[in-house]
Amino acid sequence: MEHNRRAVDAVGAVLKSVRSSTLDLSLKRQIGGILNAIELQVEEGKAKQNVVTLLFAAATELVKTNEGIGMESLREALERCARIVVADDQT
Question: What is the tens place of the pLDDT at every residue in 12-58?
Fold first, then answer.
């Protein structure tokens, strides 16, 4: 997985949404930390696909286990972002 501006931008957009959301601060930090790790993987250009997939799964699981306003849209945003990162890696 090489550096990919489109993938980095997609992760950054979700991260920005999380940071500006009304989620509990602890949950924001947890999800944000995972997204930062994904962003680093993509930026460095040496990411292992299985690591990125597991990180997205962890972030998605956090969202699924915390109910609240905006969680469904955040889950959908994570899934769209994961598809972009994975698809761009396979092209």
Answer: 999 999 998 888 899 999 999 999 999 988 887 666 788 999 999 99
Global confidence as pTM: 0.86
Q: Which of 58, 55, 60 is nearest to 79 (CA)?
A: 60
How open is the CA angle 27-31-32, to the nearest 5 degrees?
110
What is the chain's length? Answer: 91
Show Cβ contacts of residue 31 under 8 Å, excluding neighbours closer than 6 positions.
18, 23, 59, 62, 63, 74
- Angle at CA of residue 15, ends 49 and 73, nearest 5°: 95
Residues 59, 78 contacting (CB under 8 angstroms): yes
